Structure formats: C-alpha cells, structure tokens
Amino acid sequence: MEGLIFDIQRSRQDDGPGIRTTVFLKGCPLRCVWCSNPESQRSSPEIMYNANLHIDGCEECIKACPVSTIEKDEEEGVRIGRELCRKGCNECAKVCYSNALTTVGQMVSVRELLKEVEKDMPFYKSSDGGVTISGGEPLAQPEFTREILKACKERGIHTVLDTSGYGRWGDLEEIVKYVDLTLYDIKHMNPLKHKAYTGASNELILENVRRMGQKKMPIVIRFAIIPEINDSEENINEVIGLTEEVLALRVDLLPYHRLGVSKYRMLGREYGLQSLEPPTREHLNRVRDLLISHKVGTELVV
C-alpha cells in the first residue's frame, strides 16, 4: 500500500494532544482561496521554483528537461512551461545544485512511513502525543489513510485525523475506526458561499460531521477566521450551533495568515486574496468571546 505525501513534520504541538508527528498527504478536492499550502492540492508531484536560490548562468535544468519546457527568463532566472511539464519527471530538480527547483510530493509505502513515525515513539510516550494525518485531504486517499492509522493503533500510537470531511461517508466511517480524535475543518456554514470560496458545497461536509456526532465520535471543530469571508456573527453563531449539535469537545480558532503566499509564485499560480490582511488580536478576541458566551470551549491556534 503506497500513498502520495508532501511533508512530514515532527514535534508538532498544535495538531492534537502532546508532541506529535504530522504526516501531510497530497491531494485535495477543495480549492480554498485562502489555502496556505497550495502544494497540497494537486494529486501528483509538482515542481516548485524559488527564484531567490537561482544561480545566474546555470542552465543545467534547461539541458535536463526531456520536453524542453524550461527556458531562460531575464527577471526570474528560468520559466517553467507547466502545461507541458511531465508530472513527477523530476529531472530538472535532480540537477539543480542550489535547490531552486524542488519536487513536492513523493510516493511512500505504509511500512516506510511507519519506520519514520516510530522514531518519535519516546516523545509520544513522554507527552501523551502521537501521529496526526493531515493534508491536503486524507479522504482523497482513503485506503492509504486507513492503513496508516490502523498500523499506528496496532503499535499503541495515539491517532488524530485532520480533515475537511469532504469525502464518502463509507470511507470516513472505516477510517475513524482507527482514530482517537478528529480535527474537523469547517470553512463556512452557508452552502453557496462555501462553494464560492472553496469550489464545492458544504452539504457533504455537514452531513458527515453530523453522522459522526450521532455516533458520539470525539471531534474538535477547527474554524479558520477569514476576515470579510466567514467571520460574520451570523456565520459564527451557526458554527456554534453545529458544535453543540455534534457534541464537539471544543472549537479551535485558526487566524488567517499570509505565510503561504510565496508558495503560489513558486508553483506558477496566482494568489486570490492579495489585499486581505490577517485579523487583529481584538478581532480574534471578539470571536472567542462570542463562543465563550455560548459556553463553547475554545482554543486559539497560532
């Protein structure tokens, strides 16, 4: 059993209890306009280009490209014709001495992944931590996600699933058999606005979380505060209502940030929220106070 991942991060303390190793799977059916990990979206390896690392005069990548899709550029150093690029070919990145060109996304087996996460077992035991499967969207690779979590549980490792809930209920139901806690991302409660900002309606997402609530599965609602998009009092009140309905343990508030903006340029894409600024501390406190006034437990994840 193999799957496509784009990162493994150790010593995480905001993806569930204790010290955790978070595995980021590649591929997501949603296209959130505020996404800070655009490299997670496509279900295939991609080339990222950091012009700041380019060595002037070096043309090794141009020579190595088997389809001649890389050419010199006066401002950026080189330009990649991404529509012609062979996904996962990796020849240009192999010869890039400065790592200006890198491949994001690699196939790994469950066995290989377990060897990596088991290196952190002492940290899990000392902090009541464990492994978190995130993305992208783990439900986009349901069999792989299930087998990773199953293998972790067989080794006594605490497991967390971080998901948008956009996937088949049958897949989610099988996966959560091996999950101790689900971090469930809610983008927007209005189906039309959800589709406008993510590319898909939220009907499936809400149906799945309600089914989990009916089965009394441990859930933490994660809500990213995006100014002028989903931070209205009406929308937040609906999030509170959902939290109470599914008996969620609490709501994690994640402030919008711009840390991933440079990645869009490295992937040859446009970022859709160029003028949007992160919420102020006062704004975050108002949202938090609204949740607290409804006796909803909340944490600010920054």
Provide a descriptive summary of the structure in words.
The chain folds into two domains: 2-42 and 106-300, TIM Barrel (Alpha-Beta Barrel), CATH 3.20.20; 46-104, Alpha-Beta Plaits (2-Layer Sandwich), CATH 3.30.70. The protein has helices at 60-64, 91-94, 110-117, 121-127, 142-154, 169-175, 191-198, 203-214, 233-245, 261-266, 281-293, and strands at residues 2-12, 20-25, 46-49, 70-73, 77-80, 101-104, 106-109, 130-134, 158-163, 181-186, 219-225, 251-255, 298-300. The protein has 302 residues and is of the alpha/beta class. The mean pLDDT is 95. The protein contains eleven helices and 13 strands. Helix 5 (142-154) packs parallel to helix 6 (169-175). Strands 7-1-2-8-9-10-11-12-13 form a nine-stranded mixed sheet. A two-stranded antiparallel sheet has the order 3-6. Strands 4-5 form a two-stranded antiparallel sheet. A hairpin with a 3-residue loop joins strand 4 (70-73) and strand 5.
